Hints:
With 101 residues, this protein is mostly helical. Helix content is 64%, strand content 0%. It has one domain.
Amino acid sequence: MSDSIQWLFIPIAYFISSVSFAVVVSKVMSLPDPHSYGSGNPGATNVLRTGNKLAALLTLIGDALKGYVAVTLARAFIPVDLGSWVLPMVAVAAFVGHLYP
Length: 101
């Protein structure tokens, strides 16, 4: 795979990781928006404040898996060699996408 195409996985990882599972799970389960209660942080702990443990667990799993999926997807297409900075940058993009969606 060409180097220029490999670099496209960085914004892809950012966008995959920018999905807020707290908001998605809350909407699907008809819970209030996690920005509107508790700390206002859209995370599993704040979703747990609704009293719905299943929603909090699904949020936690979704938040953990989105970084894994982004890096694993890139890893499937990008060869690992000691000179490549693309995979570490994909991991950083996934982290930044989670923090700053």
